[in-house]
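Input (structure):
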């Protein structure tokens, strides 16, 4: 009995936060998505209507914004993976201890700075007179400027540690004789990565991709500061939060649906059972 009381005491505060704040807020978000905004007074009235969801489907601007945001999140996840796997192999199996420590600090360094500081740093880097254009000027090339490419690069810079750290940890746990055996059997580096490394670190890749994918879906400040005219789901939500809260609530459910569909797809692969 005392053990149950102690367990209940330990779980009381986190469960109160989870149920009373997080889940309740999501529930109210769902409820608000069905409410109505008075076109004359702009006041929100409780009710039930599917018009807000219909707008997401029939409005081309909303559809293109959803597809664009999904594409950006997938691109950030793919780019983070392309960087993390070779880097993780080099750190875990090739680099000397001191170089491994330097690289580990370099990867996690963005986490030490504030979010806005990092976004503004990328904005300064990609301005017309910034470091990127200065570096490419001798070759007669200009940087991407404030475009969707810069949004993808900035989001990758922000969320790369969430992919790189679990991938590196998983690769470090792989026996070195797997790489030796693959080389003895005639497999090249890329074939070894494709047929041996990637299947074995699949749970770590999925764990990292959940962060890079979901965090990119919900971001909008990056698009605002370095995206130029690029609009993401968060941009539309921010612009409607005061004008039309029910529409903003309905649009806020779109990233949740994307993440749920992604997790369902991942679960069917069986990778979550090995995490």
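Output (sequence):
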């Amino acid at each position: 009995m005392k053990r149950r009381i102690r367990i209940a005491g330990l779980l009381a505060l986190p469960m109160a936060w989870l149920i009373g704040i997080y889940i309740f807020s999501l529930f109210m978000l769902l409820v608000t998505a069905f409410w109505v905004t008075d076109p004359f007074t702009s006041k929100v009235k409780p009710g039930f209507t599917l018009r807000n969801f219909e707008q997401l489907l029939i409005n081309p601007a909303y559809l293109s914004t959803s597809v664009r945001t999904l594409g950006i999140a997938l691109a950030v996840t793919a780019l983070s993976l392309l960087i993390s796997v070779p880097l993780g192999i080099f750190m875990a199996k090739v680099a000397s201890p001191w170089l491994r420590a330097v690289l580990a600090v370099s990867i996690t360094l963005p986490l030490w700075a504030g979010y806005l500081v990092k976004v503004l740093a990328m904005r300064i880097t990609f301005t017309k007179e910034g470091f990127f254009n200065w570096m490419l000027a001798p070759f007669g090339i200009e940087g991407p400027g404030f475009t969707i490419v810069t949004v993808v690069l900035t989001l990758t810079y922000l969320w790369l540690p969430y992919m790189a750290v679990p991938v590196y940890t998983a690769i470090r746990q792989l026996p070195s004789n797997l790489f030796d055996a693959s080389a003895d059997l005639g497999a090249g580096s890329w074939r070894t990565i494709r047929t041996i490394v990637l299947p074995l670190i699949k749970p770590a890749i999925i764990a990292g991709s959940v962060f890079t994918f979901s965090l990119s879906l919900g971001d909008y400040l990056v698009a605002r500061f370095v995206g130029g005219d690029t609009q993401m789901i968060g941009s539309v939500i921010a612009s409607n939060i005061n004008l039309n809260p029910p529409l903003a609530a309905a649009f806020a459910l779109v990233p949740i649906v994307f993440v749920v569909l992604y997790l369902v797809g991942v679960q069917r692969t069986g990778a979550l059972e090995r995490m």
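Notes: The chain has a mean pLDDT of 84. The chain has one domain: 60-274.
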